Amino acid sequence: MFDDKTRCVVLVGVQWGDEGKGKITDVLAEQATLVARYQGGANAGHTVLVDEDEFILHLIPSGALYPDVRCVLGNGVVLDPKTLIDEIEMLKSRGVDIEDRLGVSRRAHLVLPYHKQLDGAKEAAKGAGKIGTTKRGIGPAYRDKISRNGLRVCDLADRDYCWNVVREGAAAANAILDYYGVEERADSEAVMSGLAALTPRILALGTDSGEEIRNELARGGNVLLEGAQGSLLDVDHGTYPFGTSSTTTAGGAAAGVGIGPTLIDEVLGVVKAYTTRVGAGPFPTELQGDEADRLRNLGAEFGATTGRPRRPGWFDGVVVRHAAGVNGLTGLAVTKLDVLDSFDEVLLGVGYQLDGVATAHFPERSADIERVRPVYEKEAGWNADTGACRSWDELPEAARHYLKRIETVSEVPIRLVSVGSARSQIVRVG
Predict the structure, then answer these.
(1) Using CA atoms in the order 230, 236, 237, 243, what is the torsion angle rounded to 10 degrees?
(2) Do residues 314 and 376 touch, judged by C-beta distance below 8 A?
(3) 45 versus 400: which is more confidently predicted?
(4) Residue 399 contacts by C-beta under 8 Å, 6 or more apart in sequence?
(5) Order of strands across the sheet with 8-13?
(6) 8-108+205-268 classified as CATH 3.40.440.10
(7) Residues near 359 by Cβ (< 8 Å), separated by ≥ 6?
(8) What confidence tier does 129 reach under pLDDT thresholds 50, 70, 90?
(9) pLDDT band for position 183 (cuts 50, 70, 90)
(10) Is 158 a catalytic residue?
(11) Residue 18 appears among annotated catalytic residues
C-alpha cells in the first residue's frame, strides 16, 4: 500500500461500522511509521488479533501493537481521559508499552462524566425512538464543542478556566437531566477531582497532531489515518439521525488531524463481504430469523464496545457505491469473506425499488430508506475453506466471481481481502 508515491493513506469504513477497520489498520501499520485517529471517541471498538491474543481498542490507534509505530489522537477525536489512561494501563499489563510513543492533540475536546449522563438520559427518554448510542458521551461532547462550551486537552493547564467550564457545563447538564426526570445530578467538584488526578499524564501526552504528521511526511515517513465508525453513520452523509455525531468520511480526516487534503494520497474503504448494523436505523438488506442468526453466529457479530448483537444482512451495493463517492475511494479492503464459506448461495444487493420505481440512488431521508426494497443478484456459493488462501488465484472461482461483482457494483477496485481474523489471513490483490 505504501510506496514512494503513497505516503499518506486514509482508512475509512464504508458501511455502518464494524467493518474490520482494526484488522486492516493493523495489517497496514506494519509499513507505517505513524498511525492517527481523526474522529470519534471511545465509541469505537477496533479488534486486533495477534497470534492468539485479542486486543480491543476504543481510543488508541490500532497501530499500537507495532513497537516502532508512533500513535496519535487527532484534534477531531473527543477524548475520555479516564478511558485513555485505563487503555494505556491495559496494554501495559499485556506487554505493550504505548505511553512513550502516544500523542494526544492539545486541541482535542474532552468527554466529561456529565456528557455520559446526558447521553444515557436522552437515549432513555426516546423510548421506542432510540438511535442506538453507545452512551459513551460522544454526542454531548461534540455538542459542547460545536457550541463553544467544551474543554480541550490544552485547557487542563489552567485550573481556573477548567473550573469555569465544568461549573457551567454541570449546571446546564443538570437542567437537562431535570427535564428528563433523572434524579442523578452532575457534580462539578467530582468532575474536577477526577480531572486533577489524570491531568499530569494527559498533558504529558499533548502534541500538535497536524504538525507531527506534516513533519513525519516531510522526513519520508508513512502515515495511516484511521477512521472510526462507518460512512453510513456520518452526521451529514449517513442515515441521519441514526448515526454518530462526527464526520466519519475521508473528508473529515484532514480536518480531524490538522493537515491539508492535498497531503492525502490514497483512501482505502473497508467493507464486509456482507453487511451489519448495530442499534436502530434503516437497513435495506437486513436478514431476519434463522438466516440472520446463522450469519450473526458464523461472523461472531456482537459489538466490541457494547456487546450488543449486530443486525446482519446481505451486501448492499447501493450503500457502498454511495460511500465510495462521498469518500473518493481509491480501493477496497473486503473483510470476513470466510464467513460466507458455507453458504450454498449468497445474495448481492445491486439496486433499490422505491414505491415501485427502480433507483440506484441512496435516499437522503431515513424514512425513505426504510421503504426501499433491495434488488438482488443471486451468486453461487463456494462451499470451501478460504482461511488458508493467501493469493487471488488460491481463492475458489465462485468467491473470485463474487468479489469481482462487488468491484463492479461498487465501482472501486479491491486491494485486500481478509479471510480470517489473524494478521496473516490476508489476500493482496494486484
Answers:
(1) 40
(2) yes
(3) 400
(4) 337, 340, 382, 384, 386
(5) 206-207, 102-105, 70-73, 34-37, 223-226, 8-13, 266-272, 331-335, 414-418, 426-428
(6) yes
(7) 351, 352, 353, 372
(8) low
(9) confident
(10) no
(11) yes
Run of H or E including 331 = strand 331-335
Pick the CATH number of 272-428 from 1.10.3720.10, 3.40.50.1000, 3.40.50.620, 3.90.170.10: 3.90.170.10
Q: Within the chain, which residue ranges are assigned CATH 3.90.170.10?
A: 272-428
The one catalytic residue among 26, 46, 208, 237: 46
> Phi, psi (5° rounding) for residue 246?
-125, 175
pLDDT digits (tens, 9 = 90+) for 235-249: 999 999 999 999 999
Is 90 exceeded by the pLDDT of residue 102? yes
| Given the residues 3, 4, 18, 158, the one annotated as active site | 18
For residue 372, count CB atoms less than 10 angstroms from its CB and return exposed for 0-12, middle for 13-18, buried for 19 or more: buried
For the record, the C-alpha cell of 338 comes out as 470466510
